[in-house]
């Protein structure tokens, strides 16, 4: 996955992207993240990248020039490119989108807005897709871009180590994850479920599957309508429901 992030605050993106798992993935080359400072593309001596809004009103607007020039510079490499505008007005990012981006062969360009946003002509002429991380407003697109890059990159085979695979995480198979426990076996009078210390792998597998179904049923029942349940899943889910309603 190859990404370019265009921003007025490169430090925010760098801090998020070059640490931890993503940092390791950028070192191995599985993920390449280029952070470009839009001020470097400003033409005046003060490196101005924002200006007052036409029509008046409060706040500043990001000028089109630096954004167009930065995207032109990226496109001049000749690689196919897909341009995203970080925006609360975009399609809301989710696991499905993360999977799509993890498989994208084009270079992904993320334009991060600040202030009141980016001059509308950027959206009209440069942007392939507006993308949001939820129905709320951030002060800038940097954290949103970092969220999208991290969630997508960890789905690329090899980015996570073998013992931290994404397949078992929530959403991967359409269900929420099962609960996790670690030592000590009893903590403040709360014991770990017996089955997990039983050493019986088949019982553990069934317990975890049932817990995943139960968590999804309780917290996100909408997800269950979108997946095909196996006969075993159906049976486990029936158990969950009858235990929940106190019948058996
Ligand atoms: N006036 C704009 C919001 C500007 S917030 C509006 O109401 O639509 C400043 C910048 O933060 C935006 O340009 C965008 O890049 C980023 N941003 C804010 N909320 C976001 C969200 N939910 N998802 C992605 N980016 C967001």
Q: Strands, helices and their partners?
A:
Elements: E1 2-7, H1 10-17, H2 20-28, E2 32-37, E3 50-51, E4 61-62, H3 64-75, E5 81-92, H4 95-102, E6 107-111, H5 120-125, E7 129-132, H6 142-153, E8 186-187, E9 190-191, H7 201-219, H8 221-224, H9 231-244
Parallel strand pairs: 1-2, 1-6, 5-6, 5-7
Antiparallel strand pairs: 3-4, 8-9
Helix pairs in contact: 1-6, 4-6, 7-9
This protein binds S-adenosyl-L-homocysteine.
Explain the overall architecture.
This protein has helices spanning 10-17, 20-28, 64-75, 95-102, 120-125, 142-153, 201-219, 221-224, 231-244, and strands at 2-7, 32-37, 50-51, 61-62, 81-92, 107-111, 129-132, 186-187, 190-191. By secondary structure, it is of the alpha/beta class. The strands form 3 sheets. It has a 5-stranded parallel sheet with strand order 2-1-6-5-7, sandwiched between helices. Strand 5 (81-92), helix 4 (95-102) and strand 6 form a beta-alpha-beta unit. Helix 1 packs parallel to helix 6, helix 4 crosses helix 6 and helix 7 (201-219) crosses helix 9. The protein is elongated, with a radius of gyration of 23 Å. The chain binds S-adenosyl-L-homocysteine. The site of S-adenosyl-L-homocysteine has 20 residues, from strand 5.
Brief account:
By secondary structure, the protein is an alpha/beta fold. Helix content is 37%, strand content 17%. It is elongated and about 70 Å long.
């Amino acid at each position: 996955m190859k990404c370019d992030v265009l921003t007025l605050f490169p430090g925010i993106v760098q801090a998020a992207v070059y640490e931890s798992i993503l940092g390791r993935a950028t070192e191995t080359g599985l993920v390449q993240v280029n952070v470009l400072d839009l001020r470097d593309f400003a033409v005046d001596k003060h490196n101005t990248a924002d200006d007052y809004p036409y029509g008046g009103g409060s706040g500043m607007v990001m000028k089109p020039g630096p954004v167009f020039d930065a995207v032109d510079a990226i496109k001049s490499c000749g690689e196919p490119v897909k341009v995203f505008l970080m925006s609360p007005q975009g399609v809301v990012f989710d696991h499905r989108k993360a999977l799509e981006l993890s498989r994208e062969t084009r270079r992904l360009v993320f334009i991060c807005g600040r202030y009141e946003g980016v001059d509308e002509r950027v959206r009209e002429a440069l942007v392939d897709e507006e993308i949001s991380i939820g129905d709320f407003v951030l002060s800038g697109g940097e954290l949103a871009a970092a969220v999208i890059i991290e969630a997508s990159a960890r789905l690329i085979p090899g980015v996570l180590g073998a013992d931290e695979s994404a397949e078992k995480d929530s959403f991967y198979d359409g269900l929420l994850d099962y609960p996790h426990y670690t030592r000590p076996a009893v903590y403040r009078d709360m014991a770990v479920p017996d089955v997990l210390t039983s050493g019986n792998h088949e019982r553990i597998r069934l317990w975890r599957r049932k817990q995943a179904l139960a968590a999804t049923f309780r917290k996100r029942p909408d997800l269950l309508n979108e997946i095909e349940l196996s006969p075993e899943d159906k049976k486990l889910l029936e158990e969950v429901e009858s235990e929940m309603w106190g019948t058996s």
